[in-house]
Design a protein that fits this description.
There is one protein chain. The protein is an alpha/beta fold and 218 residues long. It has eight helices and nine strands. The strands form three sheets. The chain has a five-stranded parallel β-sheet. Helix 8 links the parallel strand 8 and strand 9. Helix 4 packs across helix 6. The longest helix is centred in the middle third of the chain and has 13 residues. It is globular, with a radius of gyration of 17 Å.
Length: 218
């Protein structure tokens, strides 16, 4: 295998897409965070948002905080079709998820067919494929679908995101009693992941975890 070069500094990085110094300098979330949504909290307690409005998911693993350079790398991957970034982005999540309870199934955040046609790929599906291979967890492509075309969540005010995403998903296959991990790139308000988790819970899933590359902290 030919040595790779770090996507940030171009130094040789062995089999990884990020060299060790750049990996060590990625924006960290810290250990004290809400166990449900991974938002930093003073004592690692559940945050006020999750206490007041419990989401459909049960826990969140986030590899990094959504700060520089991820606020450049993830948009380049997602909107600029820089597909080579999938592997280095997934590596941090793989490291964090290794010690987590293994789910029965990985599911990527689905795209509406119109959005998939526009973009040409599902960025979360590529990440889920890498996670499934590294962690030896099954991944499926046909369990859920997005049936409502919504504006990009990033373009909406925080309060409008939950309204826009309501009833956006449909479960197509049996999930009763299953522990499922949902894979996505960034958790901001968590509205999309919350709605998808609730849809899966209504279909009988027993536990839903969110596995994301980055979490916003404000």
């Amino acid at each position: 295998m030919l040595p790779q070069h770090c996507v940030l500094c171009a130094a040789q990085s062995g089999a990884s897409g990020l060299c060790a110094p750049c990996l060590a300098n990625m924006p960290q979330l810290g250990q004290l965070r809400c166990p449900c949504c991974a938002l930093p909290t003073p004592q690692g307690e559940r945050c006020g948002g999750c206490l007041q409005h419990p989401p459909g998911f049960d826990s969140t693993i986030a590899a990094w905080a959504y700060d520089w350079p991820l606020d450049r790398l993830i948009p380049a991957y997602k909107y600029g079709a820089e597909l080579a970034l999938a592997k280095p982005l997934a590596e941090g999540l793989i490291l964090n998820a290794k010690s987590a309870p293994r789910p029965d199934l990985l599911l990527a955040m689905p795209l509406h067919p119109t959005r998939l046609q526009e973009r040409g790929f599902n960025q979360s599906q590529l990440l889920a494929d890498l996670l499934a291979k590294a962690l030896r967890v099954p991944v499926r492509y046909d369990v859920v679908e997005r049936i409502k075309l919504t504006p990009p969540q990033a373009s909406l005010p925080r309060d409008a995101r939950r309204t826009a995403i309501r009833q956006a998903f449909r479960v197509r296959e049996a999930v009763s009693g299953m522990h499922i991990a949902l894979v996505d790139d960034v958790m901001t308000t968590g509205a999309s992941l919350d709605e998808l988790a609730k849809t899966l819970k209504q279909a009988g899933a027993s536990r839903i975890d969110c596995w994301v590359i980055a979490r916003t902290t404000n």
